[in-house]
Amino acid sequence: MQNVSLNNTSSAARGRADNDVYLVQRGDSLSGIAREHGVTLSQLLRANPQIRDRDQIAVGQPIRLPQAEAAPGKDYSVKVGDTLWDIARQHGVSVRELEVANPQLKADRFQRIFPGDVLRIPSAQAGQVAAEPGLAERLLKLGREWLQQAEQGIDAAGTQLGAAADKLQADVGKLFADKPVTATNTTHPAIPERAPATALRLGDNQAYEASLRAAAARTGSTPEALAAVIDAEAAKQTKRVPVLHTDGSPLLDKHGKPVSRRIQVWNPQSHNPSGAAGLTQFIPGTWLGEAMRRGTFLNEKAIERGWVRLEADAKGRERQVFVLADGKTTTEPFDRRYAGDANVKALLAERYNADWSINAAADYGAANLARLEQAGFKLDGLSAGERAKLMYLMHHEGEGNGPLFIRGELDAMPKRRFASSEARLTSIFAQQVGADKAALLTRLAGGDVQQAYRGWLSAYIDNKIDVSRFANQPKTTALSSLLEKIGGKALP
Q1: How far, in Å, CA of 233 to CA of 488, rounded?
Q2: pTM (2 decimals)?
Q3: Staple 307 to which of 7, 302, 314, 358, CB 3.0 to 4.6 Å?
Q4: pLDDT surpassing 50 at residue 3
Q5: What DSSP line would sit under 143-188, residue for residue?
Q6: Whole-angstrom Cα distance, residue 247 to residue 57?
Q7: Which element (helix H / strand E) includes 492?
Q8: Number of other CB atoms surrounding residue 110 within 10 Å
Q9: Nearest CA among 394, 396, 395, 355 for reference residue 372
Q10: DSSP 3-state assignment of 247?
Q11: What is the pLDDT of residues 430-459, one digit of tens each?
Q12: Cα dist. 18→21, 195, 254 in Å?
């Protein structure tokens, strides 16, 4: 467990308007906002002289954030398999102190870390964030006591953990009853409570919800699992959008200029030098193959467009064929001979259609899970998050190398044009992370390129695939344990 929180969405993520302005949310206090952004309460008050009563702030009120000072301490280079929780415990600090000392983590709302990243480890005293006397100090103490209980093993027993959480909630309620800290709401509508378990949290990617739900219902998956896979696959584009009042008018800063916020959204128009394209980054061969596979979304669409049809072969057996622009047909539209065909190009261009791309990913993921079961892996009883990790793994590795990765047998992959399987894997690794980083990780693994590659990709998937970001779901099992669970080989 990397973090223990009463709410999956931080106030910083919910209220950030731009790099310098924060919009007050229900339940906020100035001391809490200060802690969330790594500054002291006094620094926050100095940056906002317009605030006369620090216990009375309004929902939607803009708060200017002062620049946080760099925390003293030492640097740490993230290793394969590291999590923020592990790093914090290793150096005797809390995850919150680690977050405060590394404000760059707030730039990514999922707080993803990767091997080679450098984090600042605060000293014991530097990690102590100044808090508002009284309520905030007591609340922080209660939280730390509960975390210590969790670390001692209470989290291994669900009933005891639930009781500890209930006790903390009750204690917090008493503190707020003792000294209420309110955020008045006289001009803004009520902000809804935490989303129910069936809600899908897509943030600025809400436009894709209908496609995700339809694709999940059609393939027997869940929309949050598909969202996690797509979020890992999709390239992101950064946009700036205006911050608006509830009446639709723009929020202005102290200079009278409109305030904007930076958002990152999935980019359905992305194209990779490898040939992968669209929201779910399908390469041409796989996309065309899915269009030729009976019963898939792409197959149905290709039939509707007249690109695929049924005809009898020389022995009178019915088969599907792809119709080329000149009227001729083939069963292998992915052959390089047809790369310039107008119908092949038209079908490949639909990779940039977000609805087609989402549905194709759902079909491909379901088919890959079925292939794993056919290969003898045990998938019964897996959670949506665990299935999402396996879907992404198979999408990344392909139906040939995926099972080899799971069994720890990548040294048996076909060598193709390379001198050996190891040479091919070394090339694949370098393409993924760069030659220098691949060489470094391989050295750290004692020269075992398979161990280095499996370690890197497992850490990458654990960081990328987390359905709890998109719905109220528990944290997913680490990939290494999941591989062993289904009959594969865990990481060393």
Answers
A1: 24
A2: 0.57
A3: 302
A4: no
A5: HHHHHHHHHTTGGGSHHHHHHHHHHHHHHHHHHHHHS--EEE-SSS
A6: 20
A7: none
A8: 12
A9: 394
A10: coil
A11: 998 999 999 999 999 999 999 999 999 999
A12: 5, 24, 14
Assess contact for 66 and 112: CB atoms under 8 A. Answer: no
218-260 pLDDT, tens digit per residue, is 999 999 999 999 998 899 988 888 888 877 888 888 888 888 8
Give the mean pLDDT of 399-407: 93
Which bin fits 67, alpha (ψ -120 to 50), beta or left (φ > 0)? beta
Mean pLDDT confidence for 121-147: 50
Going by C-alpha positions, the residue among 242, 270, 261, 234 that lies closest to residue 465 is: 234
Kindly give, in sequence order, each residue whose CB lies less than 8 Å from that of residue 161, ignoring residues fewer than 6 positions away.
150, 154, 155
How many other C-beta atoms are found inside a 10 Å radius of the C-beta of residue 203?
14
Identify the residue with better confidence: 150 or 210: 210
d(CA 11, CA 31): 12
The amino acid at residue 76 is: Y
- Count CB neighbours of 36 within 10 A: 22
Taking the alpha carbons at both ends of the chain, their separation in whole angstroms is 20
For residues 412-437, average pLDDT: 92
Buried b / exposed e over 344-383, threshold 16 CB at 10 Å, is beebbebbbbbbbbbbbbbbbbbbbbeebeeeebeeeebb
Q: What is the pLDDT at residue 136?
A: 45
Select, from the ranges 103-117, 133-147, 374-388, the one with the highest average predicted confidence (pLDDT).
374-388
* CB of 62 closer than 8 Å to CB of 21: yes
Residue 2 confidence (pLDDT) above 90 = no
Length of the chain: 492
Tokens of 308: 């695929």
On whether the CB atoms of residues 93 and 124 are closer than 8 A, the answer is yes
Residue 426 has pLDDT above 90, yes or no: yes
Contact 459, 81 (CB under 8 A): yes
How far apart (Å, rounded) are the C-alpha atoms in residues 224 and 383?
A: 11
Element (H, E) at 62: strand 62-64
Name the packing angle between helices 297-305 and 284-292 (round to 10°).
80
